[in-house]
Specification:
Number of strands: 25
Bound molecules: adenosine-5'-diphosphate
Structural class: alpha/beta
Largest sheet: 7 strands, mixed
Shape: globular
Low-confidence stretches: none
Mean pLDDT: 96
Amino acid sequence: VKHVDVLVVGGGHGGAQVAIALRQRKFQGSIAIVGDEPHLPYERPPLSKEYLSGEKPFERILIRPPMFWAERQIDMLLGNRVIAVDPVRHYVRLGSGEAIKYSKLVWAAGGIARQLNCAGHDLEGVHVIRSRADVDSMLRGMECANRVIIVGGGYIGLEAAAALSKCNKKITVVESQDRVLARVAGEPLSRFYEAEHCAHGVDIRLSTGVDCIKGSNGRVVGVQISTGEYVPAELVIVGIGIIPAIEPLRQAGASGDNGVDVDAGCRTNLPGIFAIGDCAAHVSGFAGDTVVRLESVQNATDQAMIVARQLTGEPAVYDAVPWFWSNQYNLRLQTVGLSSGHDQAVLRGHVEERRFSIVYLRRGQVIALDCINSTKDYVEGRALVTRKSVLKASELADSSVSLKSLAERVPIQL
Ligand code: ADP
């Protein structure tokens, strides 16, 4: 049986970064990445943005050039998946039947796009956006599609709406909640995005679900929505979140209700097994010490660094401030902190100028900012979040006063 010192499961942002960071830190042992996709690690955010709209070819979204991995002796086991883990004897079994023994295992398998379960969910022309293959198969049917229905008004759905409206498609977004981005953003931001999409001709249906998808000859022709209406479409995109890809780990005895639980060192409860990225849940000081599972490049990359540091003999704990971005039309959103659980949302700047920030407070403490075309607020606001600054809404609302000067004024609270 083949033996690998550090076996990484998943070739996304987290998995790639573990290997990159280990070699940067002069780790001499053997490293292998098992990835179910046949491609070298690539950036996932462009899939719902520039890759979907055709502005960036695949080569430009690779995380490293192809040579990189071979040069650093990072063994790429692509087109293969781990189907079982033996945490006692330290080996995994691959879908191909092969067994690999490991010294340390890093689970970075991410998530699987959730599908609808209504009738017609598996018709041709119904797509999710999670992998390059998803988008490529969607693009093959794109020319014949004029009308597109997007199910889910999260970032994936809204970014896809923006990218495809650029391509002159007639778009309807169907969102089951009473506002878009309900899971991740405050209400003022939801309302702003709804108006922006509306101005670009995107029809957003809130508090609306999908009853079934109708097809003809196996291909989608429209969607029956919960208002009783029938909306014709040649293409349906489903962006309703992910399910953490953790089944083999769960079978092996890993704990966690929503993904795999990890401690501040990204260790699971299984010896020698770490978990990072979209599939890992941790207690976050930025969420009032509650358990969160973050789906972001930042989280995957920073957790990868924590694992790499420990595997090279340096103690490390994960306490990085969460950040995130989204591009839609000519709006650049940058988020720092976690806004869920806020009891106040303060507007800074001018919505009409499409340049503003929303500062989220919980019991007077700044917990997050959503900044639209306001990189300065984003950069300066980070200090308010990391220092857990307590400020008055009236001070934050005054955009003539910089966040930097506010940050300097407030004593650091630990
Ligand atoms: P993603 O990362 O895919 O955008 P999110 O969880 O952030 O995932 O957003 C998914 C959105 O889809 C949420 O706003 C949620 O309310 C919505 N949603 C989930 N299931 C359905 C459904 N069956 N029909 C319409 N909207 C849905």
